[in-house]
Design brief:
Chains A, B: Keywords: Magnesium, Metal-binding, Molybdenum, Molybdenum cofactor biosynthesis, Transferase. Two copies of one chain form a homodimer. The two termini of chain A are about 40 Å apart. Chain A contains seven helices and 28 strands. Chain A has helices at about 10-20, 165-175, 210-220, 235-245, 260-275, 305-325, 375; strands at about 30-35, 45, 55-60, 60-65, 80-85, 100-105, 115-120, 125, 130-135, 145, 155, 180, 185-190, 195, 210, 225-230, 250-255, 275-280, 285, 290-295, 300, 335-340, 345, 350-360, 360-365, 380-385, 390, 395-400. In chain A, a hairpin with a 2-residue loop joins strand 24 and strand 25. The first copy, chain A, is α+β, with helices and mostly antiparallel strands and about 400 residues long. At the A-B interface, helix 2, strand 15, helix 3, helix 5 and helix 6 of A face helix 2, strand 15, helix 3, helix 5 and helix 6 of B.
């Protein structure tokens, strides 16, 4: 084994441009039911083939009237209209509203012919078949015209929109049962490292359980991907080549593990032989030994082997790439601003992801070391320290991105 | 049909206290695999039955040494050590490191007996079996002790934690394949209203498609619940009673529709007969005709029939209740602050949810009317206007909660 130190590091911005450029939005689509559609990305333009509502309707419980019949009504001078019919929601009036008459309507009921407004029940009194109207209405008051919500022919949802509850409501309003969405990117998660075992296997000397495949899969699920964990890749060039070849049926290939320079060289060589290395080594902390390549058009990201490095780069590099592929767009991580509990020194020249928790309104760094998954699990979020900043003062206000 | 106007409105805070008090966290648990566990809530305390790492290990690629053998090393005065063995990750050394000797180790490899530090490969030169060390190390440098990440016996994850990628990583590190989480609350979504049809049915005069069951189900899924849409409830007291009885196998009952006072009275009567009305009518806009009851210990929420009213109250009232039941805790909706594009007047005495979108960095109200689902679908989020505020000035900075 010849151990070669990594070459000069690429800065994060340049690295991200390369990754984002190689990450291509998925074009494949599938049909899902409205109940399955929440959080998915619409793959068709949705144009209305009907008006919503499909008829003019009462917007209040009350009496459908000819507005002019109510003009001049007041608390001491009610206009008196004859109640000629009572209809409920879902029913249509048989009669038309003629002058000095009215029809009782429930909210949502179709407006009877002849009526152009609804007097609210609160502004009336009923005496057998006489309705005393105490307040005038103007034409169209408390009546929703046909197509007020959605006009037939209008295109209400655009391709690429994320389907949130309101947009699913629009589909329901138009009578859709299914909708065409983009497929989720399929992601091959390939663990490697002779020292790792899958959870559930019996631990033997020198071995540890695979952490990265699980943290990455969880992150992939959270960011719109479909992870598939591969068997642990053997530490040989042949194994790397045949595994990557098998993974070419996936949209994105994520290699996890291979933390040591030796293992990494083997991955680098496999990618070099099969495609192109875009970069190897990036100026972030932790997470320096990150690899980016393209094999037959497929983006391949080699994550650092250390669990914290792997996961912070998961948030920083993998998730944005995946969100471009899945078309979910940038993740709006909830964030808050709070002061540092103590001075913190960072490494100049490397963009740092610092896991933190909040204690009494102050930001407490919880980074233990890159090899410790508890560095992340004890954190509530992270702060980013740009490459050109080497010191955060005690009390300095920073932005915490919450997991 | 006798139409009764609603009684005095409860303020939002008092209403929320009632709803939140009646919403009880789910106690039932289930086992899921680590891959299914992301976003779920842990129902057990997780204590380590092993150290992580389970052995002292090299934290760098390099040479395991006795630190004292490197003292005094410098660029012009290397210490020369004999390379007696080469081990890779996953292997254990057969030999011990004796004075003036070293063993080549990869990151993650167990520390050989006798060694107490690792010299980084960058600080050395190899000449056949002689390793020139150009920089001294102190004891424990670049070596991670056994249990550094997690100590055997320590309890690392607590019941009630939401399983994010890092916490799933902790479970993987400890060799877990499955984990016990709280079951998701099962939610009965019961549409009503004689005027509604399910999407896919042929539209007939006076009828509209059900929107609320779909917006609510999407919202329920997004907030940790398992929605089940019931058949459309008939508009009779008997139907209401038998449907609610059937829904008592669910954790939460959500009635949607019944926008008119008449339909609502029927629901109120059914709930009064079977259990207790907690409130009927709340000082929010839109969403006033909201009903809260408890039937045999089950929280029941009657949502307003109008789609926008229903969905804003879904975000404002239903989602917090569900997140208490599912133990997900308050939703940290991403938010941003921006100025109002124009003056906006609100209703004093009612807490308003105003759907808005952002245009050129300014907040644009998009509220059309409560009956229009496009009031919400055209919005990117909403602002809240407290009951005691009746005016937002043009340029006033408000907080937008993003969907």
């Amino acid at each position: 084994m010849v151990m070669k130190p990594m070459k000069a590091l690429l800065d994060l911005e340049a690295g991200m441009r390369i990754v984002m450029d190689a990450a291509r939005p998925i074009e494949r689509t599938e049909q899902v039911t409205l109940l399955e559609a929440v959080g998915r990305v619409l793959a068709e333009e949705v144009c209305a083939s009907m008006d919503v509502p499909p008829f003019a309707r009462a917007a209040m419980d009350g009496y459908a009237v000819r507005a002019e019949d109510t003009f001049g009504a007041g608390n001491f001078s009610p206009r008196i209209l004859e109640l000629i019919e009572v209809i409920h929601a879902g029913e249509s009036a048989r009669l038309s509203v003629r002058p000095a008459a009215c029809i009782q309507v429930a909210t949502g009921a179709p407006m009877p012919d002849g009526a152009d407004a609804v007097v609210m029940v609160e502004d009336t009194e009923l005496d057998r078949t006489n309705v005393m109207v105490y307040k005038p209405v103007y034409p169209q008051q408390h009546a929703s015209p046909m197509g007020e919500d959605i006009k037939s022919g209008s295109c209400v949802l655009q391709r690429g929109m994320r389907l949130d509850p309101s947009k699913i409501g629009v589909l329901a309003a138009l009578g859709f049962q299914k909708v065409t969405v983009y497929q989720k990117p399929a992601v091959a998660v390939i663990p490697s490292g002779n020292e790792i075992l899958m959870p559930g296997e019996a631990l033997s000397p020198g071995r540890i359980y695979d952490i990265n495949s699980y943290t990455l899969s969880a992150l992939i699920s959270e960011n719109g991907g479909l992870p598939q964990i591969f068997p642990i890749m053997k530490d040989t060039l042949e194994a790397a080549i045949s595994t990557i070849r098998e993974a070419l049926t996936y949209d994105l290939i994520v290699l996890s593990g291979g933390s040591s320079v030796g293992e990494r060289d083997m991955m680098v060589e496999a990618v070099e032989r099969m495609g192109e290395i875009k970069f190897h080594g990036i100026a972030v902390k932790p997470g320096k030994p990150t690899l980016c390549g393209v094999v037959e058009g497929h983006l391949l990201i080699g994550m650092p082997g250390y669990p914290t490095s792997c996961l912070t780069n998961g948030y920083g590099i993998l998730a944005p790439a995946l969100r471009k592929m899945s078309r979910l767009g940038e993740r709006a991580l909830a964030s808050l601003k709070a002061p540092m509990v103590r001075r913190y020194t960072s490494t100049i020249g490397r963009h740092q992801y610092l896991p933190v928790r909040l204690d009494g309104g102050e930001v407490v760094p919880v980074f233990k070391e890159s090899g410790a998954i508890t560095s992340m699990a004890d954190a509530e979020g992270y702060i980013e320290i740009p490459a050109n900043v080497d010191l955060l003062e005690k009390g300095e206000v920073v932005e915490v991105l919450l997991f």
